[in-house]
Design brief:
By secondary structure, this protein is an alpha+beta fold. It is built from 4 helices and 3 strands. The chain has a 3-stranded antiparallel beta sheet with strand order 1-2-3, with helices on both faces. A hairpin with a 6-residue loop joins β1 and β2. The chain is globular and about 40 Å long.
């Protein structure tokens, strides 16, 4: 069973949703996240800012983020950002599953489908692919 609570908070670097938004946010947000630090929740949790930066670069390359038991043992999540007409990340959509039911490869395929859906929503908001606000 997968459970969450309204208003529940998780460390940004350990969630697919958080990383999907962070990858396209202003560098000052990464600076704030790095300065605040984060708890290590599982063996797969990111341990350093350089590791997070590498993941953020991959997210920008592929268009989606993966949480592979980084926040909670037994759960995998894929997420992708939704952009405003100005190319700013304003929301994200995600899918969470049990690791026992969906392997990493299947989750990657699902993530690509989520990215397509997010692009459609973003386009409806006036965003054009390639018009993402600069993150550097």
């Amino acid at each position: 069973m997968i459970g969450s609570t309204i208003g529940q908070r998780r460390p940004i670097p350990l969630t697919a949703l958080g990383k999907a938004l962070l990858a396209y946010s202003a560098p000052s947000l990464l600076d704030r996240v790095a300065a605040a630090g984060w708890e290590r929740r599982t063996e797969n949790s990111l341990r350093s800012v350089p590791a997070l930066e590498r993941q953020l670069a991959e997210i920008r390359r592929f268009g989606f983020a993966i949480d592979n038991e980084e926040c909670d043992v037994g759960l995998r999540c894929a997420a992708t950002p939704i952009f405003s007409h100005a190319g700013l990340p304003i929301a994200a959509i995600s899918a969470t599953t049990l690791t026992s039911r969906v392997d990493h490869d299947a989750l990657t395929l699902l993530a690509a489908e989520l990215a397509k859906a997010a692009q459609e929503v973003s386009a409806a908001l006036g965003w054009s692919q390639g018009e993402t606000a600069p993150t550097t």
